[in-house]
Amino acid sequence: MKTSKLFIGILLIYSFMNFSCNNSNKVSSNYHLEKKYWAIEDYDAAIAGLDCTIESQKLPNLSDNTAEIFKKIADIDNVSIVTEDNSLGLKHRDNFATEMFDKYKTIYKHYSKQDREDKYIYPSEIAQISIFGIYTQIQYFKLGNENIAKEAINPNSDETKNLITSNAQIIVDNIKYSLDICKKEDALTPDAIHILDEGYEKYLPLLFKTFPTANYTEVKAQINMLLTTVKSIETKKMLVSVENSLIDTQISNASTDEIKQSLLKEKETINKGEKK
User: Fold this and answer.
1) Non-local CB neighbours of 90 within 8 Å, separated by 6+ positions
2) What is the distance between the alpha carbons of residues 53 and 47, in angstroms, rounded to a whole number?
């Protein structure tokens, strides 16, 4: 008897989902283009729309009449309008950033699909979503750390400081891994590579500024490895620019003249083109 009830329950759930996804008006209404900025509930509706897109259909993208939908999905202003508004409460902004980070991960899964030739089905879109994710992560970890310090009984305790340091290192390591997409030039298009290059050059310096004392040794190693493997001249220029920005941040936070001089020499080496 229990099995029959379970089967009926599953059937009802499936029927409801199938009805929702086959209702074209329901799906089209998921993308709230009439709104200037999207809130969490708007992203929930949009993700429901993505979930309802069957394999034979295309997700909203930059190449057809759904371009405005995709641009709204990947609009960083939807995040910054809340996370950078200091008139709002810290906890509210932290909770919002947490939810938006989760939305980003779901959206990324939809757009990261590759075809049988290992090429991205949505190359420009996955590039833009990746940059959206970098900004969202920066805000997520920044506000999270600020909230930890605010709510801690003793913000200066070793336990609190270690937690904040650990969180900062997590995002730095995450961004290091996100640079892996630069190696996938054959899976991308020139337009996608350009979107990534512009985005990294704009938002990685924000990462360095937000978490200036994190350990960037592996990020530098990743950049230097990419400089030897990527073909795109534009990407190589971006990587050099990003590394210069990182070193400038480290110089500003150098604890000794010896460290500062070492960083200045490192920067000089990069700009002389000795790193190929």
Assistant:
1) 143, 146, 147, 150
2) 10
Q: What angle do CA 152, 156, 160 make, to 5 degrees?
A: 50
State mean pLDDT over 104-123: 96
Does the predicted model carry a pTM greater than 0.85? yes
Residue 276 in this model has a pLDDT that exceeds 50: no
- Structural contact between residues 52 and 20, judged by C-beta atoms closer than 8 angstroms: yes
Nearest to 226 by CA among 188, 258, 192, 179: 179
Convert the pLDDT of each residue in 215-238 to its tens digit.
999 999 999 999 999 999 999 999
Amino acid at 43: Y
* Rounded-to-integer distance, Cα 17 and Cα 143, Å: 36
Tell me the C-alpha distance between 195 and 181, whole Å. 12
Residue-level pLDDT at 57: 86
Alpha-carbon Rg for the chain in angstroms: 22
Give the domain ranges of the chain. Answer: 31-271
User: How many residues can be counted in the chain?
Assistant: 276
Give dist(CA 249, CA 172) in Å, integer: 14
CB 199 within 8 A of CB 239: no
The answer for residues whose C-beta is within 8 angstroms of residue 223's C-beta and 6 or more apart is 179, 239, 242, 243
CA 61 to chain centre: 18
Three-state secondary-structure class, residue 260: helix
Residues 6+ apart with CB under 8 A from 239: 182, 223, 226, 227, 230
Per-residue pLDDT reduced to its tens digit, 6-35:
444 444 444 444 434 644 434 468 899 999
